[in-house]
Amino acid sequence: MLILENITKIFGNAQVLRNLSIKVEDGEFVCIIGPSGCGKSTLLRIVAGLAEADAGTVHFSPPPGLHTAAVTDATSLRGKKISMVFQNGALLPWRTAEENMLLGFHSKDAALVAVGAGTGKPTPKKYLASVGLSAFADKYPHELSGGQRQRVGIARALAAKPSLLLLDEPFSALDPKTTHDLHDDVLRVWKEERLTVLMVSHSIEEAVSLADRIVLMKHGAVEGIFTIPLPYPRREQGLAFHTLVQKIRAKFFE
Predict the structure, then answer these.
(1) pLDDT digit string, tens, across residues 167-217
(2) Using CA atoms, how far apart are residues 108 and 98, in angstroms rounded to an integer?
(3) Among 46, 67, 189, 241, which residue has the fewest nearby CB atoms (within 10 Å)?
(4) Cα separation, 233 vs 241, whole angstroms
């Protein structure tokens, strides 16, 4: 379980996060939504270790049967457990898709993969295949579409074999068809790899399509939490889907 307790973040005179607390269960898909500037991406960066909270803690509870003392400090644990996908894929333009994939491996594994030494370890091609990019391993980022670049970013994150996958509005710049296909990819990988996913989105419909629970943030605090009981795949045209979207939208605009 990922536990965020009383997270506070201040930039200058602005308090971006205000004593925010969230728990994410193992294997759960949680989506954070809220107005621009409410602190969603800042919170995700704190969880990833890319920013520091001014107060509060981020930690994992130990697995069942493991004594708390056996768990390392939160900073070390986060470094081993978390991968993050950014809005634009964040690929190195001078590397091919496969070479960008190698960045997702720990340095020792990357060296073994690079020499092709029959180690039995997962290869970049496995993860490229998982997002439908087997035929694009030798392509450079400028030769890929926006959706393909995002797929490389997702596959690279999976190569690190995280227990927690962070998604920071990864589909916001994509067309509806590409977004729909990537939703399917993410849901399939989430189920196959048994990941815990924490995602930031600007779309209520997207959040209802993907998440087990939705956290609504306003002014740096949790405004509401909504459980999504709909089975997968979710039909956006269905009455139950539409009813949930309207319920969350009403709270969003209060």
Answers:
(1) 998 888 788 888 888 888 889 888 888 889 999 998 999 999 999 999 999
(2) 17
(3) 67
(4) 11
